[in-house]
Every structure is written in structure tokens, then in C-alpha cells.
Amino acid sequence: MVDSGTSADTGAQVLDDAPIDGVVAVVLAAGAGSRFAGPDHKLLAPLPATSTRPAESVVARSLAHCLDAAVGPTVVVTGAADLDDVIDAARAERSSMRGGADLTAVSNPDWETGQMSSVRCGIGAAAELGAARVVIGLGDQPGVAPSTWRSIADPGPDAPIVVATYQGRRGNPVSLSSDVWPLLPHEGDQGARALMQIRPDLVREVPCDGSAQDIDTVEDLQQWQSS
């Protein structure tokens, strides 16, 4: 979606707020992760336990933080990696919480064409769920806190596009009202960044804690594993 920030892990806990009417969270987890030279896909690489989360994969923790925010139904867009076990485990973990996880997985057959195809795929699934706004994050950013998902998802009126910032730098997630969905590009790898560049009048920035650093390389992973 947008450039990432600095590295920092974050604890997670289920927020007490009720789901936000008309909002669907979207986690993009379809790409090939071609810069990662590890034995498995980067999304399935292991992260150590924290005070609030068990040892789990990169995508499992990213998804857990999104679900902890409890903003509403969640859509995971899959593609290159087989994430069925991760999604099943997330559903099982949430089965006794808030009546269970409203978690939908959609496969993007065009994931190789770039991130925008996954954004479009996620928005399409969210629209079928009745969304008036989507809040979109990445499956390789486990440092995005539940509170960040929540603040970006519920920005108040007159905020067509809302973007998280970390120490003044834009990151993810990004929140998009349905009014701007037709303005998004149809292809490419920039997500909503291109629209924010040409329509800054539509954008509101929200300072957030945590980190939107991607885990793209083995070195990135080792930094997280040692923190």
C-alpha cells in the first residue's frame, strides 16, 4: 500500500470496542515474497513468542493483530502461499471470542500482476459483505498494532482516505471509503499510494504507535526474531 516505517514489535490484546458499522478489514497476503531467501515463504517464517502472543508465523501474527482490533469482518487475500492452516487456526482461536471470527479468505488468481489486483480482490469481497469502508493492511507487517487498525478504521466523518503514520512517515494500514474505490488504479504494485499522490486533498494522516516495517528479507526476519 505505502512505504513502511521503522522496526518495533507490538503486543496485542482484543480491544473492547464494538465492531464499526460498515467497515471491513482486508489483509493482503497474496504476493510471492521473492526477496526472501529462506526455506519457506516469508509469510510462514517463524516469529518468537511475546508477552501477549505465542510463537507463530509472520502472517499469523499480522492477522491476529487485525482480528484483535475487532473492527468488523475480515478478509484475507491469498495467492502464492498456502495459508489454509493459518486461517483455520485463526478461526479456531477466535471461536470462543465475540461469537467467533468473521473471517473470509479469497484467492486472487491475478496476484502475479501486482498488489493492486489484491487490493481490488479484497475490495470486491468487502463490498459483498456490505462494506462502506475498507481498512487495508499487509500480511508481512506484524508490528501494526490492534489500536492502529482501530484508529484507521474509525476516523470520523469527512475522511475519504486515512493513512497511518509512524514518526511522521506514512505506512499501513490505509482506510478507504467506498467513494474513492472507483478512483483507484486498476493495475500495478502501488496500492492506494498513487491515488494519495494525485489527490492529497482526500487524505488524512493519523499518528500511530507500533511499526509498519515489512518483513521482506531473511535479515528483516532475523531482526524481528532477535528483538
Describe this structure in words.
The chain has 227 residues and is an alpha/beta fold. It has 6 helices and 9 strands; from the N terminus they run E-E-E-H-E-H-E-H-E-H-E-E-H-E-H. It has helices spanning 58-69, 84-94, 115-128, 146-153, 193-198, 218-225; strands at 23-29, 46-47, 56-57, 74-78, 103-107, 133-138, 161-166, 169-177, 203-207. The strands form 2 sheets. Strands 5-4-1-6-8-7-9 form a 7-stranded mixed sheet, with helices on both faces. Strand 4 (74-78), helix 2 and strand 5 form a beta-alpha-beta unit. The longest helix is centred in the middle third of the chain and has 14 residues, at 115-128. The two termini are 25 Å apart. The model is unreliable at 3-12 (pLDDT under 50).
Number of strands: 9
Radius of gyration: 16 Å
Instruction: Please provide the ordered H/E string of secondary-structure elements.
Output: EEEHEHEHEHEEHEH
Largest sheet: 7 strands, mixed
Helix content: 25-40%
What is the residue-averaged pLDDT?
A: 89
Task: Give the strand order of the largest sheet, numbering strands 1, 2, ... along the chain.
Answer: 5-4-1-6-8-7-9
Low-confidence stretches: 3-12
Query: What's the shape?
Result: globular
Strand content: 15-25%
Alpha-carbon distance between the termini? 25 Å
User: What is the count of DSSP helices, taking H or I runs of 4+ residues?
Assistant: 6
Quickly give the structural class. alpha/beta
Topology, element by element:
Layout: E1 23-29, E2 46-47, E3 56-57, H1 58-69, E4 74-78, H2 84-94, E5 103-107, H3 115-128, E6 133-138, H4 146-153, E7 161-166, E8 169-177, H5 193-198, E9 203-207, H6 218-225
Parallel strand pairs: 1-4, 1-6, 4-5, 7-9
Antiparallel strand pairs: 2-3, 6-8, 7-8
Helix pairs in contact: 1-4
